[in-house]
Design brief:
about 210 residues, mainly alpha, 3-stranded antiparallel sheet, about 55% helix, flat
């Protein structure tokens, strides 16, 4: 992929990285995604450690969470043109970002297997350095922001999260979470309990007009 500034020696790895499990239950990108997630996480963590030498662990962690989020990965994947290249099965519109994010991680896993960690790290850093530089103030994730708001405005109370039964196929579940605080509730969905709870917190923040 020319936009990645990386030339695959084994192009079958790239082809596999772009096959979602809904398109092929046996020959898909899930294992590459597993590796790519770790390669991306370490590469971004090291980049942030270098770029923000005076920040505490909590600030670095919030930056990291934002930079490796489904939304960020899907945005990068779209800019690289992966949306038209990924093979996927039938899915709702709400799953598109997850499919693109998973494919992006799988591509990084494929680069790691094809050229080693340094090759994958270089590709990631080339993209993520500008993303990390875009906001010099460490962000607060939605769950942290919601908790701080509720504690401040509801006498120290905490939001309550209810984790519902997952839906969808066993190999590709959709998790749902309901969060309640200050007399209001909101729902969030995602490919994991973590992403679903963050989405729920973000929706409740909108309701509470943050």
């Amino acid at each position: 992929m020319s936009k990645l500034n990386y030339e695959f020696k084994d192009k079958s790895l790239l082809e596999l990285a772009l096959v979602q499990s809904g398109a092929d239950a046996n020959h898909n990108n899930e294992r590459l995604e597993f590796i790519g997630d770790r390669v991306l996480g370490l590469s971004v963590a090291a980049l942030l450690y270098e770029m923000f030498p005076d920040e505490a662990e909590g600030d670095l962690a919030r930056r990291h969470a934002m930079l490796v989020s489904t939304e960020t990965l899907a945005s990068v994947a779209s800019k690289l043109g992966l949306a038209s290249k990924v093979r996927h099965g039938h899915m709702t519109a709400g799953r598109i970002n997850h499919v693109l994010a998973d494919a992006m991680e799988a591509v990084f896993g494929a680069i790691f297997l094809d050229g080693g960690f340094e090759a994958a790290r270089k590709v990631i850093v080339d993209i993520w350095r500008d993303l990390a530089s875009a906001d010099l103030t460490a962000p607060k994730d939605s769950k942290t922001a919601l908790q701080e708001f509720v504690q401040k405005n509801a006498g120290g109370a905490l939001p309550e999260y209810e984790y519902l039964e997952p839906t969808g196929a066993a190999h590709n579940p959709v998790f749902s979470v309901r969060v309640t605080a200050m007399g209001h509730s909101a729902m969030g969905t995602g490919s994991s309990k973590k992403t679903a709870s963050i989405a729920a917190a973000e929706e409740l923040l909108k309701i509470l007009a943050i």
